[in-house]
Specification:
By secondary structure, the protein is an alpha/beta fold. It is built from five helices and eleven strands, in the order E-E-E-E-H-E-E-E-H-E-E-H-E-H-E-H. The longest helix has 25 residues. It binds hypoxanthine (HPA).
Length: about 250
């Protein structure tokens, strides 16, 4: 039985090389997950794959049902999650095509349901979130990346924004002063919900563009799509290697 799940983001709605064994739409108390969960084998290893934005990429970051997705994965026995996400690079070393395995998060999202412990009639629980990502899963991604000779940045702070629009230059400058090294729209509340359900979770951030004000000119969708094509190829290799270790 699979205990490792990959949550695929923009540019990774399906996992090449995944031998599909089954699909299941899981009912949850929080509504429907983004799409049916895929059971499969990656290099003969059992894994589960969930496309965060749906298989046809129709669900924007602020409309993803993060609670349903995470609850669904836990309900089928998943213990470890590799969450893939396209990000913008804020710090200089986070260039397009590089892979960042962040170790911290700052949450700038608003109005998203960010807990399973919502009070009455349920219990109140305050989970520790000092270290938002699981070190073992992070390590697997980092080791896999270095074995491949990929451009992997082993630490960083993921700034999670509400979207769906990209940020202003002032916002990115503020995030930089806050210590953010990358920016994305899906890192939260996904990470904290996984923590609340005691699942080991790490992010594989794929830098697909320079964040606002950090590149030449404004950000175009062509630039982002090019970045996705470049970065997701590397990400696939990194994920495959990490799954072997996990
Ligand atoms: N900002 C926010 N989210 C993103 C970006 C960005 O520049 N690029 C990819 N996801």
């Amino acid at each position: 039985m699979a205990t490792v799940a990959i949550i695929g983001g923009t540019g990774l709605a399906r996992m090449e090389g995944l031998e599909i064994k089954g699909r299941e739409m899981i009912k949850t108390p929080y509504g429907a997950p983004s799409c049916p969960i895929i059971y499969g084998e990656l290099n003969k290893l059992p894994i589960v794959f969930l496309a965060r934005h749906g298989h046809t990429h129709k669900i924007p970051p602020h409309r993803v049902n993060y609670c349903a997705n995470i609850w669904a994965l836990q309900s089928i026995g998943i213990k470890k999650i590799i969450a893939v996400g396209a990000v913008g690079g804020i710090s200089e070393e986070c260039t397009t095509g590089s892979i960042v395995i962040p170790d911290q998060i700052i949450d700038y999202t608003t109005g998203r349901v960010n807990t399973f412990y919502d009070g009455m009639p349920d219990e109140v629980r305050h989970v520790d979130f000092s270290y938002p990502y699981d070190e073992h899963v992070r390590d697997a991604l980092i080791k896999s990346g270095s074995a491949l000779g990929a451009d992997v940045i082993t630490h960083g702070t993921y700034g999670a924004t509400q979207g769906p629009h990209l940020e202003t230059i002032a916002e990115i400058n503020r995030m930089e002063r806050d210590g953010c090294t990358i920016v994305g729209m899906t890192g939260m509340p996904e990470a904290v919900l996984a923590r609340e359900l005691d699942m080991a979770y790490a992010c594989c951030g794929v830098v697909v563009n320079a964040a606002a004000g950090k590149g030449a000119g404004v950000i175009s969708m062509e630039e982002i799509n090019d970045g996705i094509d470049r970065g997701m190829k590397t990400a696939r290799g990194v994920i495959e290697g990490a799954v072997k270790v996990l």
